[in-house]
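Subject line: Sequence and fold of a protein, written as structure tokens
Body of memo: The sequence and its backbone structure tokens, given next.
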Amino acid sequence: PIFSKHCDHNVSVSKILKETSNHRMEVIHGDVLDFNLQSLLSMDYKTEWKDRLPNIHIIGNLPFSVSTPLIIQWLRSMSKMSGAWSYGRTPCTLTFQKEVAERIIAPPKSEYRCRLSVMCQYLCDTKLKFTIPGKAFVPPPEVDVGVVKFVPLKEPLIHQPFALVEKVCRHLFNTPNKYFIRGVRSLFPVERDDLSSQIMEMCGLNPQMRAFELSVQEIGQICDAYAKIVEKEPEILTYDVRDNRKVPRWKNTEIVTSDIEAKILNGSLEAEETESEQYANFNNSK
């Protein structure tokens, strides 16, 4: 079966799509950000994560306004093997504004290298399949469109909770052209510079490298080092440099870690309770 999710409630378009597919396509109207893909799929499609890809393929011509929040949401689901990814390594082929597509696939040292590059590449094999000129669309956008294919990796390149990886990447790429030590320092209160020194010692990376020069594996080393510090001092996880205040010595770490989760994605998406639980139980998972 073929399912099509549309936010456009044009009945004639839906009818044409159904007829063109010989009624094999089911058109569902609504907001894809709120939609549970798992509700469409039968367990007959399920494969083991490290086996062949399931007979499922998500294809989307995405509005530019939702493309980045949506792929972040789906990457989080991939990291937990939930939703459409509870059936196995479900691939996606999606459209993005060309510049966003370039950022998704950007290698280290590329001018397009950013937080999104790392978040996508640590979980997926990403490839820019081709570019579509804007004039091919109706109405035509002012920019060209890149078509990117995502295939989830059998093993993530960074073995840490999704939100922790996102937080570290956000701090590193806040100043991508500065030495990455600057981003590491911003993970901690000013008076705890000893912790950024610990990370640098554990990683053994050149402190004069810039964030955009770091490979996914090198960022993974930073994430691992940060996780070890959080394991010893859980209250450090609650520190947010934007709050410009010291980390309090909280007695109830579980409550605080639940609160910080909402900040980690910088307000772009609603935090999920299960991610908060990952933080609350961080020490127990080690």
About this structure: The two ends are 42 Å apart (CA to CA).
